[in-house]
Amino acid sequence: MTKTTNLSRRHFMATTAATSLILGAGRALAAEPIKTAGIYTVPVEQQWVSRIHKAALAAQDRGDIAYSFSENVSNTDYARVMREYAEAGNTLIIGEVFGAEQEAREVAAEYPNVAFLMGSSFKEDAALPNFSVFDNYIQDASYLSGIIAGAMTESGNIGMVGGFPIPEVNRLMHAFMAGAHEINPDIKFQVSFIGSWFDPPKAKETAFAMIENGVDVLYAERFGVSDAAQEKGILAIGNVIDTQADYPDTVVASAIWHFEPTLDKAIAEVQAGSFTAADYGVYSFMNQGGTSLAPLGTFDGKVPAAALALVAQREAEIKSGAFSVTIDDSEPSSS
């Protein structure tokens, strides 16, 4: 079922002009916030979508956009919802079209004056200049979290539970595995995909099976994995969001995605009238502020010093360009 939510600030933001100062003009001019819609196939609480939603709320608080959204939109209904928002006068539409690529691009072609910024496994098309793509290229922070996992495992056996083996998931798993192998090349991995973006019970059961098979650290790409780790008293590494506050004895570290650089770039392009087809994936890189490693928090002082020194070294090298994390979109396998 599609649930459309009008945020409490939206009416105010849509009817109250933000003020911008034009240099040299000596007077303030009213700037209407960009009418923006988000279309999500899962609840906004789901970790990946929550980061897009958070960035949109921040942009609304600044007065840059007037934001409304729909969540739990099925792939078969996605094109219809896109059309409804376009017809309603939204000039920027954001979302994720991994399961509705062709239909979404067909709709975008019907509304050339609307800017579409969509999560996608495919690239932009110059023939469709109003349709830009993005993905969470947070392999930099995933690599660093892998170093920590490699230092924390005692069994040398790490479990990884993902949603689907698509590029956006695969690249993070490969980066994590590479980081773990840098600190300990003998580590083995158990890899499994649950075939869902939001099925915490299934993810939890999959993690339980891995624990039975000897893993002592879990890579929690999906919700439910950290619950299993907590119940069985083993460690977990988070993904996209920081869940340590919910699992203070379980989640050691997390690779965080910051969608703000991606959305802010799109907003600036729409404001300037220069939005065009582009791949916004680069704005998720660490050197663009699109990803970071969450603070250790409750695990401060518990991670080996050698691992932390390597994390600090690699982070500095990633930001300077001296070290690049390999982007591997192929499906990972158990080892």
Task: Label this structure with key terms.
335 residues, alpha/beta, Rossmann fold, six-stranded mixed β-sheet, 10 helices, 14 strands, globular, disordered N terminus
What would you note in describing this structure?
It contains ten helices and 14 strands. With about 325 residues, the chain is α/β, with parallel strands linked by helices. The protein folds into two domains: about 130 residues, Response regulator (Rossmann fold); about 150 residues, Rossmann fold, CATH 3.40.50. The strands form three sheets. A six-stranded mixed β-sheet has the order 1-5-4-6-7-8, with helices on both faces.
What is this entry, summarized?
The protein has 335 residues and is α/β, with parallel strands linked by helices.
Secondary-structure element order, as H and E?
A: EHEEEHEHEHEEHEHEHEHEEHEH
Average pLDDT, to the nearest integer?
A: 91
Radius of gyration: 21 Å
Summarize the amount of helix as a percent range: 25-40%
- The CATH superfamily of the largest domain is known as Response regulator
Compile the SSE list and pairings.
Elements: E1 3-6, H1 10-15, E2 18-21, E3 28-31, E4 34-39, H2 47-62, E5 65-71, H3 78-87, E6 92-96, H4 101-110, E7 115-119, E8 131-134, H5 139-152, E9 157-162, H6 167-183, E10 188-193, H7 200-212, E11 217-220, H8 225-232, E12 235-240, E13 251-257, H9 260-272, E14 291-293, H10 305-320
Parallel strand pairs: 4-5, 4-6, 6-7, 7-8, 9-10, 9-11, 11-12, 12-13
Antiparallel strand pairs: 1-5, 2-3, 13-14
